[in-house]
Predict the 3D structure of the following.
Amino acid sequence: MEQFIALVQAYTALGVGIIIGLGAIGACIGIGIMGSKFLESAARQPELVPMLQGRMFLLAGLIDAAFLIGVAIAMFFAFANPLLSKLAH
């Protein structure tokens, strides 16, 4: 029984690392692409910078929110693992 608990904890740790790692990479790539497109748009039409800047910050917040939701789910599995309760029965 202790082997199964250790195995679940090990796989959970791997899963948490993958969730946080891939989420961070995705958020960084998303913000990088969005920032480059903003700079390109601002260089082409400088009069639209105020409107584009507001939309850029909105999208940056949404991209970060998606990453933080992934972190919250990963922390849920790290600290309150529902899979371990199934082994207790």
